[in-house]
Amino acid sequence: MVNILVAHMIDNHGHRPTKAIREDYARGIVMLFPSLKNPYSKKGYEHFYDAASSTGYISWRLKTVQRKIRRGSALPPNSPIDFSPGGPNFQRTVNVVRQLDGDACQEAMSLLNHTTDNSLIFQKMRETFQHRQKLVNDPGRSVDILSSFPRFLDTKGLVDQNFTLLFDGDTSSRLLQKWDLFFKPNVIKEAKRLTSTPELRHLVQSAESPPGSDLDEPTTYDQEMASLLLLLHLLPPPPGGLKSPKISACDAVERLVVFHKVIILLT
Predict the structure, then answer these.
(1) Which residues pair with 103 in a beta bridge?
(2) Which of 52, 167, 264, 266 is an S-S bond match for 171, by CB 3.0 to 4.6 Å?
(3) Per DSSP, what are the bridge partners of residue 55?
(4) Dihedral (C-alpha) 118, 123, 126, 130: value to the nearest 10 degrees?
(5) How far is 113 from 155, CA to CA, in rounded Å?
(6) Which domain of life does the protein's organism represent (predicted)?
């Protein structure tokens, strides 16, 4: 019965109904079925939903449904909620002119691996954007992006161009416009409230250091990278369940940032 009522509640009020709605459903149960009323509680329906503690059969069932939704399980029938997949799997409508395909695309990718002309690199990367998006949206081939397009690793500005092509110019510039004045100071402020560790203090020191300053340790990140890594410390861990491996923020930093050392031999 509780499962049916919660499904009806979600159909009509969404997957996060207010406390008043939950309490109305609990009250309705004991009104329709007086034998289910608890004679030892104040209102008689707290075992179905208690607004003071947010507990009861209705609350527990809602939490179960919400947890399944977060994990990608099917929604109740006729649910009005639209949970579109996000991230790289989200199929955005992108209109980029002069896109190459077939042999022309393969020729452009081959040219990208050999040319040193910066303007030509940007042009060919733009013309192969749609092909690259197909790789990104293919779980079996997304890991090959950097091997298929290695110029991402040595040409500054390509990631920014790709982001601008994926979104419009206004959207792609919002983060950079607000980062220095709004986001970065707040990230540093919130990071200082975390439990202090040597790694965290090191990142805060790097994030607050003025540009061009020389800190003692050679591995110190610059301001921008340090503030981004502080943001990683602030992100809550994903609800992966008991069997999902958990790593610390410091370990996540090591996985997020990979340095490619280029040794130039002069002969």
Answers:
(1) none
(2) 167
(3) 50
(4) -120
(5) 12
(6) Eukaryota
Report domain extents, the chain. Answer: 2-83, 102-166, 170-256
**Cross-strand bridge partners of residue 50:** 55
Q: How big is the chain, counted in residues?
A: 267
Q: Give the global pTM.
A: 0.45
What's the DSSP call for residue 50?
A: B
37 burial level (CB within 10 Å; 0-12, 13-18, 19+): middle
Question: Do 149 and 132 contact (CB within 8 A), yes or no?
Answer: yes
The one-character DSSP state at 244 is S
> HEC profile for 140-206?
CCHHHHHHHCCHHHHCCCHHHHHHHHHCCHHHHHHHHHHHHHHHHHHHHHHHCCCCCCHHHHHHHHH
Half-sphere exposure in the Cβ direction for 267 (13 Å, CA): 2
Strands (E), 47-117: none
Q: At 143, which amino acid appears?
A: V
Rounded Cα gap, residues 55 and 50, in angstroms: 5
